[in-house]
Amino acid sequence: MNPLDAVLDPLAFPFFVRALVAAMVVGVVCAVVGSFMVLRGLAFMGDALSHSAFPGVVAAYLLNGPFYLGAAIAAVGTALAIGWVTRNGRLRGDTAIGVLFAGMFALGIFLFSRIPNYVGDLFGFLFGEILGIGPDDLVALTVLAVLVLAAVALLWKQLLYATFDPLGAASAGLPVGKLDYLFLGLIALTIVVSLQAVGIILVVAMLVTPAAIGQLVASDFRRLVAVAVVVGTCSPVAGLYLSYWLDSAAGATIVLVETALFALVLVTRRRGAPSYET
Amino acid sequence: MINPAVIELRAVTAGYDGVPAVEGVSLVIPRGSLVAVFGPNGGGKTTLLKVIAGLLRPWRGDVEVLGVPPGKAAHRIAYVPQAELVDWSFPVSVRDVAMMGRYPALGVLRQPGFEDRAVVAAALERVGMTSNATTQIGRLSGGQRRRAFLARAIAAEADLYLLDEPVTGVDVPTQEDLMDLLATEAQAGRTVVATTHDLAAASRHFDRVVGVNRQLQADGPVSLLNDADVLARTYGGHLLVIGERGVLLDDAHHHDSASGREQHYHPGNRA
């Protein structure tokens, strides 16, 4: 098979084209939100919120409701609860996250185990089912992604200031507490957007890895986000093709491409070493 | 009134998690003051600053800042946190930091425009950071880092500067430069309140000192720093008075890497 055919052949399948588009949408929104997330030290929070979405997904299935709604309610609810417990409960953030995230995931497994007949597609939410994304799903996740991106674009300055220097920002009048909650909500929605593509277990990689690569190569926040977006858009494309050629799990292959890129950047670029740039 | 009060605290008590950090503090600071807040670590210096900045709500007492309750005149306040609370690896340049001073006034919809860039450029010029404007903040020296944050305060066109340990860990010539800048700001009618545990710097550069160790222990001209009683009161057990003039201040700083470091203070030798 010649290389051109290898690239063009899968495009004959509508499900593959939808998967490509979905993966790129997910890649962009994850890269942008993830860039703020890593600078806020919230990488673990991303993992926690994605696991917390699980009971929402199962509940939506049991009630025959849309899974987006169930996942959004569970993830946003947990995000707000973590924020509240951290602020008012005399607990460190990671402690609050640990308690609530395990509890929510356990609730999901509990609900799942009560389903009379085993359902295969719930397994898809744990590990992603990007090739199973239907046209309606694609529209829904794109709309949600645009909403999240619009919110970040609108509040870019405020989020940046509050992330960099919360004390300075708060005393200058920015509503830092509200921005914190709002950002947790945006992480939760980003996870909902990404669930079908990469699944609960792997979504944290989509959020963190492109931003981490950006952090390695850029000393300017806009450039960091730009690098993250490029990585976040290109690796799903590469990952999907690889998974098509190798017949491997799509979500995992996408994440592995990003991880490999991170490793490559890490070893080729030694940050902190004396450099010629000033 | 020629010099209206910019800060007015009446019997303010504030703290964290049920433990008071400052108790019953009353304080009036007029416009154009250059005030150093001194005292031992954990004595409530930063707490006092946070109450004034509107970052911490007092449990009891009244606070008025710039004539209104704290937080109501936030856009006229510039708060500079302790250097060790800042993530210096954060991917922002000196100019980015200064530009943040403009963000609160810009609101959500407006982007920095020509005027904002001009104000930021002037602020960078004022603090002598024009040539480092595009440098990532982690690559700066300790003194340059303070200058970057001072540029943010100037760019914000604030009337009240609240600075947490602005000269800590900065070499003496740089200290002089930074304090000259602050003195000029105060002469222009802005009010500067800075915490410091460097008594020598406080007595050289400020025109008023406020000593806190949970309660207000001293409030007046810098000559108070010559008074062994005042120092003993403020620093409690951390202070050893040797003879008539020598004072040994054992103020092991909680964030100093060297343990048990002592700072010697000799009021008689001061210039």
Task: Report what the structure shows.
The complex is a heterodimer of chains A (278) and B (271). Chain A has 278 residues and is mainly α. Chain A has a single domain (23-268), classed as ABC transporter involved in vitamin B12 uptake, BtuC, CATH 1.10.3470.10. Chain A contains 12 helices and no strands. In chain A, helix 2 crosses helix 10 and helix 4 (67-88) packs antiparallel against helix 5 (93-113). Chain B has helices spanning 45-53, 94-100, 103-106, 114-126, 142-155, 172-187, 199-205, 228-235, and strands at 5-16, 19-30, 34-38, 60-65, 77-80, 160-164, 191-195, 208-213, 215-220, 239-242, 246-249, 263-265. Chain B has a 6-stranded mixed beta sheet, with helices on both faces. Chain B has a 3-stranded antiparallel beta sheet with strand order 2-1-4, covered by helices on one side. Chain B starts with a strand and ends in a 6-residue tail after the last strand. In chain B, 29% of the residues lie in helices and 27% in strands. Chain B is an alpha/beta fold. Chains A and B meet through helix 8, helix 9 and helix 11 of A and strand 5, helix 2 and helix 3 of B.
